[in-house]
Specification:
single chain, D-Maltodextrin-Binding Protein, domain 2, 8 helices, 38% helix, 8-stranded mixed β-sheet, 240 residues, alpha+beta
Amino acid sequence: MVLGVSSPTLVTNALVGVSEIDHRDLTSIAMLYTEYSVVVTARGSPWAGPEAFLTGLARREITVSFATALGNMNHLALAEIARHVDVEAQHLPVRVFESARDALADVLNGDADAAMVSAASAVPELSNGTTVAVAVTSAHRLGGIFRQVPTWVEVGVKCDSGTWRGLVGPPALFPETIELWSTRLATATASPKWAGLLTENQWTSTYLGPTGTDRFLEAERQHLASLLYETGLLKVVGDV
């Protein structure tokens, strides 16, 4: 049996018509972790604090770069932040790159005012002091270099979005097969080695078993549909 790694694109690609397959066509095995994003600006930028960034966003004075495609979680997290200041995400000036490294370089070159990238991708520039972290998209503060960086939730913005990873299997799996994998993964994700990987990569454990994963994906489908609509990538939300 082959298991596949699931991510938000499993949901969003189906919503926007890029794929005919979504999580409802597969068997949920587990949700493993979530990789949250951070907004960064160049050191000395006038947008270095959360309130300053929100003000600039409200005035549409900020250009934001991100990777890797319109409609990904970096873009949708930005839509959540824009919602807070009553700005339609589809009208925000954004620049899209193939990698987070390119998006960060865009900021350092002065072509964008800020970048929304995965937390791990931002570590080199934050470590050498060329960029400053504005806020992270997690509900709770991250560790390490991000320990002193506020979350958007802390400053009153309803933005708790990240790129989650899980596992899915073929449709109509036998219950005993699902239970076997669920037990193995529950054990693996409770190990010290897994905890070390989470810390090393700035990942947050969001482990769920099969039933919890199904419920999460259904809720996420509704949530992501509303954000895609605000970006202009989904024309009608309707009954998704």
